[in-house]
Design brief:
alpha/beta; Rossmann fold; 27% helix; globular; binds glutamine
């Protein structure tokens, strides 16, 4: 990793004085926080940095000051929920999101942004913001991890989507815009052969937007295709 690069996720590890100098240089770059208590933080930070964002990893409430957008990575939503509460981040995060802070959640991050969860652990909470119910680990045991080219509203051409024990969106409120679904037109045998979703999974909603909030059931941070993150950075720029 290139530590000298001003957009590098390693920026947060630099001494404070050096960080101030760098942030002055990159003052036009949107400041995007990546919730860094659990999950694939580094992958998101790397993509956002490559798109010109100034990335800040968030582990405590004071680090939220001044961020213009927030990414909640994939990981394990039950663990993430416990840790945001233990680190006193849940309240401030809820307030910022409810107040209009742009946020993007992938997979467990989508669960964290959902107002309601199906198949939640007892006492599991979310940060909320998206008027929807997501079902955890929805794609079932046989196809719990799979990849599929999907159509994503607002992006040209298919998007290769990687699903890892992913949720799907089961019920949506009026203000929620559906951006992508898994396919439903393939014959069953083809889907089974390629490890794709089938049966009750076919056609399920896997990407949504509501105002400044964006969420995907899948992990664009692992594919090298940066278009979903570009869409999010654009939302952050528009709202800043
Ligand atoms: N199954 C996980 C959860 O419920 C999400 C998986 C992921 O983020 N890849 O949080």
């Amino acid at each position: 990793m290139d530590c000298s690069h001003a957009h590098s996720p390693t920026l947060s590890r630099l001494p404070a004085r050096r960080r101030v100098t760098l942030s002055a240089v990159t003052s036009t770059a949107p400041q995007i926080g990546v919730l860094a208590i659990q999950g694939d933080v580094r992958e998101h930070a790397r993509v956002l940095g490559s798109l010109g964002a100034q990335v800040r990893t968030i582990r405590r409430p004071s680090e939220l000051v001044g961020i213009q957008g927030l990414v909640i990575p994939g990981g394990e939503s039950t663990t993430m929920d416990k840790l945001v509460r233990a680190f006193d981040l849940a309240g401030p995060l809820r307030a910022l999101i409810a107040g209009g802070l742009p946020a993007y959640g992938s997979c467990a991050g989508m669960i964290m942004l959902a107002d309601r969860i199906a198949d939640a652990r007892p006492d599991q909470q979310t940060l909320g913001g998206l008027d929807m119910t997501v079902r955890r680990n929805a794609f079932g045991r046989q196809v719990d991890s799979f990849e599929e080219d999907i159509t994503f509203a607002g992006l040209d051409g298919p998007l290769h989507a990687v699903f890892i024990r992913a949720p799907w969106v089961e019920e949506t409120g009026a203000g929620l815009e559906v951006l992508a679904r898994v396919k439903d037109a393939e014959p069953r045998s083809h889907r089974a052969e390629h490890g794709m979703s089938e049966g009750p999974a076919a056609g399920r909603i896997v990407a949504v937007r509501q105002g400044a909030l964006l969420a995907t059931s899948f992990h664009p941070e692992v594919t090298g295709d940066t278009r979903v993150h570009e869409m999010f950075v654009e939302i952050v720029r528009e709202r800043s």
